[in-house]
């Protein structure tokens, strides 16, 4: 009877082996899919943050250009605000930042930009476009 029992034992273990194999395969596939989705989300968020900080940098470059051409065009306070905004942009950490730290930096940039535009008397704000990620070159 031992030989017969061994045959049935291996048959009974078959279901468990398939379940274990399916579990392992599902785990591997889930990890791979999670990494891909995480990468895609990170790429999209990185693009959004880069577009916003690029907008602020572009505004600072234009204002600095006008200030260089005619220093009397802006008040001393506004010039200091522009310089402070430039320092915030140049010190912005794009890599290896914790989510909270990145959010704090963005909030400081937004607040300083709002303050500078108020000093300059301009109504200017960052308005992301919905199709910005669909740009093709």
Automatic annotation (TrEMBL):
Limits of the Essential protein Yae1 N-terminal domain: 22-60
Pfam family, one: Yae1_N
Coiled-coil segments on the chain, per record: 92-119
InterPro entries tied to this protein: Essential_protein_Yae1_N, LTO1_adapter
UniProt keyword Glycoprotein present: no
Family: Belongs to the LTO1 family.
Protein name per Swiss-Prot or TrEMBL: Essential protein Yae1 N-terminal domain-containing protein
Organism: Cymbomonas tetramitiformis
Lineage per the UniProt record: Eukaryota, Viridiplantae, Chlorophyta, Pyramimonadophyceae, Pyramimonadales
């Amino acid at each position: 009877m031992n030989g017969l029992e061994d045959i049935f034992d291996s048959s009974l273990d078959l279901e468990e082996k398939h379940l274990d194999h399916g579990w392992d395969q599902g785990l591997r596939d889930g990890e791979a899919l999670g990494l891909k989705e995480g990468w895609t989300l990170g790429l999209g968020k990185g693009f959004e943050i880069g577009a916003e900080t690029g907008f602020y940098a572009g505004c600072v470059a234009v204002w600095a250009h006008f200030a260089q051409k005619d220093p009397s065009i802006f008040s001393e306070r506004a010039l200091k605000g522009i310089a402070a905004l430039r320092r915030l942009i140049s010190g912005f950490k794009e890599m290896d930042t914790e989510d909270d730290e990145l959010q704090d930096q963005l909030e400081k940039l937004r607040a300083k930009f709002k303050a500078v535009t108020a000093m300059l008397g301009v109504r200017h704000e960052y308005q992301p476009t919905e199709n910005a990620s669909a740009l093709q070159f």
